[in-house]
Amino acid sequence: MSTLLVKGGTVVSSTGRTVADVLVDGEQVVAVLAPGSDIAASVTADKVVDATGKYVIPGGIDAHTHMQLPFGGTEASDTFETGTIAAAWGGTTSIIDFAVQKYGERVEDGLSAWHEKARGNCAVDYGFHQIIGGVDEQSLKAMETLIDEGITSYKMFMAYPGVFYATDDQILRAMQKARELGLMTMMHAENGPAIDVLAEQLYNAGKTTPYFHGIARAWQMEEEATHRAIMLANLTEAPLYVVHVSAKQAVEQLATARDKGQNVFGETCPQYLYLSLEEQLGATGDPTWGEFEGAKWVCSTPLRSRAEGHQDAMWQALRTNDLQMVSTDHCPFCMKDQKELGRGDFRAIPNGIGSIEHRMDLLYQGVVTGEITLERWVELTSTTPARMFGLYGRKGVIQPGADADIVVYDPKGHTSIGVDKTHHMNMDHSAWEGYEIDGHVDVVISRGSVLVSDGEFHGRAGHGQYLKRGLTQYLT
Ligand code: URP
Ligand code: ZN
Ligand code: ZN
């Protein structure tokens, strides 16, 4: 087994920072050494990474991705291979993707199809949540086997009638089962049936462009569903994790429940921190796409109005821990042949944005602007995802015994985002085109292997291993 020394950097954890040398033996961290100590001076290693002047952080964990998801009449454009290579470039060394049980399908079959897609194809480590797309006796029974499979969280949808939608009685039953088993319930909290009525009315009134996706999916739809999910979780005493929160009113619902001691949690995504209904979905004038350009940013929950202050509320919630994590909800679709399906009818635009490559950089801008601290950056992108989803100790921290998933981040570096510049995702556009980022992912190490250094990719599809996860380590 070879040894690796990450030397002289500032090691940042969720609770502090210190200049230290990190010694890796094989796939694991074996020591964090004070520089200048006799022991540090005596250490030799097969390979040395000079991290002087840079941050040394635990590898990012993106706990919400959708590789190859069949959705909206097409399939998410990143494979497990392309998506995890892009993840590695961006300093994310673990993902948790969503295995899908479609309505009418056995959970076991949906899960094995996901293993089939991912096995041998991932450049970074990967785990699964389970989407339960059809809650019935059979799928409730199948939930009992998930923990043995290393899947300790599952997702239901209050949106997308006819696709993944679950009714309140189904949600209640699933939460009761989850409580019994210790599973984390993840919820897409939007009132799907009501949204579909609004969307149809808008379409019939000739309001067909991407902007109206955001109008139909009004914040009231998110607030109401978030409240209902919280109440059902309260009744069943099931822990609840609300995905892709974008409305400030939904955050208020989470905060109120948390103040009362309920185990409810929430994530937001980079798009809800930086992008907006007015600026993106309302975009016009692009010579290629015209007012259809907004399709690039069609996702659900939708981008929200900046005038209403949703973006500022997301940053505040990240500071106050009313929201605990930032994931991407990476669900990329190309404009050509994919987003284009909804030209003339916003309801047919496949929902999703690709950001897996940029999550660490984008959130680091919050450190640069003073929205969050350096330590909180690490907590939101790595340590809490590990704790929330049963990976902590092995992932989410740099300490002896942990997997050597390490990112050397250069705060003096610079990153230009664009489809022709830094982009390795399988997309014909970037939702972040033209973003100029302070900071740069310099070196990425996954289980002791250097995946990225000197602007080159040294990893391979198949390096990534399946992560059997334990129960959440985040409950109060
Ligand atoms: O627009 C989104 N979020 N697409 C992915 C599916 C989901 O709801 O997470
Ligand atoms: Zn969702
Ligand atoms: Zn999603």
From TrEMBL:
Modification note: Carbamylation allows a single lysine to coordinate two divalent metal cations.
All copies of domain Amidohydrolase-related, residue ranges: 55-450
Signal peptide start and end residues: none
MF GO annotations: hydrolase activity, acting on carbon-nitrogen (but not peptide) bonds, in cyclic amides; metal ion binding
InterPro entries attached to this UniProt entry: Amidohydro-rel, Hydantoinase/dihydroPyrase, Metal-dep_hydrolase_composite, Metal_Hydrolase, Metallo-dep_Hydrolases_sf
CDD domains per UniProt: D-HYD
Keyword ATP-binding: no
GO CC field: cytosol
Keyword vocabulary terms for this entry: Hydrolase, Metal-binding
Database matches in Gene3D superfamilies: Metal-dependent hydrolases, Urease, subunit C, domain 1
Superkingdom of the organism of origin: Bacteria
Cofactor list: Zn(2+)
Matching NCBIfam families: D-hydantoinase
Name this protein carries in UniProt: Dihydropyrimidinase
Species whose genome carries this gene: Nocardioides silvaticus
